[in-house]
Design brief:
It is a single chain. The protein is an all-alpha fold. The longest helix has 30 residues. The chain binds protoporphyrin IX containing FE. Protoporphyrin IX containing FE (HEM) binds next to α3, α4, α6 and α9.
Length: about 190
């Protein structure tokens, strides 16, 4: 199962590499790579947040083993997205990058999203999970924050058609709703 998820999630990356090698990345390759990597980072981030609700709704417990892999793949695409921006879009020009982060709100929140993902990726080894115990769970709730800021980043950058960011927001809202409902049910004593 893990191998299958890994292979499927790497298809967009393989398409980018083959497009790069065959010079077939649309008329604006930088924009294409930036958009593809950003899109898949968000898809995988939201997919990682869906794992626990799917497990609880379906009783398919083994799906939990995929969560770390999906989260790390999201981080992989988010980092490719950042590297594309630094190397191909901004040519390592630190002044322009700082100006962008400060002045363009969608870049500010995109950067914030990536920064939130860093400690999550760094603490995803089995040893760290064991060492941090409950603190690990608390820290990894930040994945929800990254989901929200990632969607806001997408929403703020689209000029007119907000349909796709709206869809991501709707999926996130359902995932939050399910979690809040469970928390409320487990905390409310049932009438006897
Ligand atoms: C690390 C800092 C980040 C920077 C500097 C950045 C920058 C950008 C830029 C320049 C674009 C293209 C805008 C356009 O074509 O008009 C973009 C698109 C996008 N980014 Fe980011 N981003 C960052 C982080 C993230 C992260 C962490 C995620 C997701 C978790 C993300 C998700 C997206 C999405 C979904 C798109 C739009 C893709 C589409 O058009 O289909 N970005 N980003």
């Amino acid at each position: 199962m893990r191998a299958a998820v890994f292979a499927v999630a790497l298809v967009p990356f393989a398409r980018l590499v083959s497009g790069f090698l065959t010079d077939d990345l649309t008329a604006n390759p930088i924009e294409f790579i930036t958009r593809q990597t950003g899109y898949w980072a968000l898809v995988l981030l939201v997919a990682s947040l869906a794992v626990t609700p799917i497990r609880r709704l379906t009783g398919w417990n083994d799906i939990i083993k995929l969560r770390r892999l999906i989260g790390l793949l999201a981080f992989f695409y988010a980092t490719l997205h950042l590297v594309t921006w630094i190397v191909l879009d901004k040519f390592f020009d630190l002044d322009i990058m700082i100006e962008d982060v400060v002045k363009r709100r969608f870049i500010t929140i995109g950067m914030l999203t990536w920064v939130i993902l860093v400690p999550l990726a760094l603490t995803s080894t089995t040893n760290t999970i064991r060492r941090l115990g409950r603190k690990w769970q608390t820290l990894h709730r930040l994945a929800y924050v990254a989901g929200i800021t990632g969607v806001i980043h997408f929403w703020w950058l689209v000029k007119a058609d907000v349909f796709e960011p709206q869809m991501f927001a709707a999926v996130l809202a359902v995932l939050f709703g399910v979690r809040i409902w469970w928390t409320w049910r487990t905390r409310t004593p049932s009438p006897s």
